# Entry
Amino acid sequence: MSMQIKRPKGTQDMLPSQAAKWRTVEETVRQVAEQFGFKEMRTPVFEETGLYVRSVGDTSDVVTKEMYTVSSKGSDTFTLRPEGTAGIVRALLENGVMNEGFPQKVYYLMPCYRHEKPQAGRLREFHQFGLEMFGAASPYADAEIILLASTVLESLGIENVSLHINSIGCPECRAKYRDALREYFAPHESELCETCQERLKKNPMRLLDCKSPICKEIAKNAPTTVDFLCDDCRAHFDTLKDILTDFGVAFTVDPKIVRGLDYYTRTVFEFISEDIGAQGTVCGGGRYDGLVSELGGQAVPALGFGMGLERIIMTMENSGCEFEAPKTPDLYIAPMGEKAQRKAALLADAVRRNGYAAETDLIGRGIKPQMRYADKVGAKFVVVIGDNELESGEAKLKNMRTGDETPVVLENFMAAFSSAFINEVFENGLGDDIVGAMTDEISGEDKE
Ligand code: ATP
Ligand code: MG
# Structure
């Protein structure tokens, strides 16, 4: 036997059995984002490498170690997107959307790529739900996106998460803060990990993000950003805390949150789950007022967040949250013989055109395996069509929940199936998928 090729390290396959979980999460985030007035947008999976170096920052982990960069023919190099914000800002500028007035509010669902050491909750290909808001400087905007993230988690039934917020100030407060950090860490320089020794020179704030236990210990008593805020940044942060308190959103001010990407200013926040171990941050975001001008636009206040969908799903699985039930066929048509197969195919087509989900046999199985299949896929109704049914023009429609059989005339199959289906819906409660089909049905009947 030849060797099978395996999937790349740090990637996952989404199998059909997991599709309902992803759909639950994706549909919920779309719905909540749209309730808050965000519009979906998509950008390419790869961008020019310079976009990330300029925006994420050349001292960040993402740029120094995690980028998947490829050179194509010619001299350009491209990088698989490690995060969403840079591409979104690039696209809004390039397409002139930033000239169409503010606020601009966009959301996205996208795969991201980072060359990290794979472990639970840390993948090389992962998926983000993210959003960005442009043109709003007010702390009400910060509060609104935090509230949005919190609404998503609540709608998904996620409970054991805590919100950590901090303010890292504007470039002016930060210059003073950096000096203070250098002074604090300088006496410990030789004890720091190699990367942090480098960070101390280039960008001492990154030291606070280091995952090495020794650096973490040294950083324990480091000065905090909030002690270095200018009056404006402090007022912004204080108002944000007031608004969150009014909303009833619980939070902790956590001076250790500085975020891994260079473009943040003022507010930074993380939602951390207690149910998924060390990689517990399910959502991270903040304000990045300097990024749009850094990428060639005007000075536009901006903010957003990214939510890791694999970590969200892990949290939901570990804490017993409910997922949407997988879709099941409304009708399974079991043909016996070649003539019946033709009739079954035509019938399935008619049923689908009327808005229902129908399946029939395509691999020539006998009646028993077909019934087992109909049961396994959860078909709501089954109709068997063999030579007898073709000859008499009549068949039996079986309700798989109750076992009841209703005689139906094949000529009039659609009308009989619809009314049996509607009865079933009323008796068995209304599933969301069913309401749509039923409403179509009723409005169809009204027309006649
Ligand atoms: P971490 O501190 O966990 O490395 P980060 O600060 O690098 O996170 P962001 O760039 O803010 O993460 O990305 C936003 C969200 O995307 C994270 O909060 C997390 O939920 C998710 N995420 C980031 N990197 C990964 C990864 N390698 N695998 C799975 N999810 C990830
Ligand atoms: Mg990271």
Notes: The longest helix spans residues 19-35. Confidence is low (pLDDT under 50) at residues 444-448. The chain is about 40% helix and 20% strand.
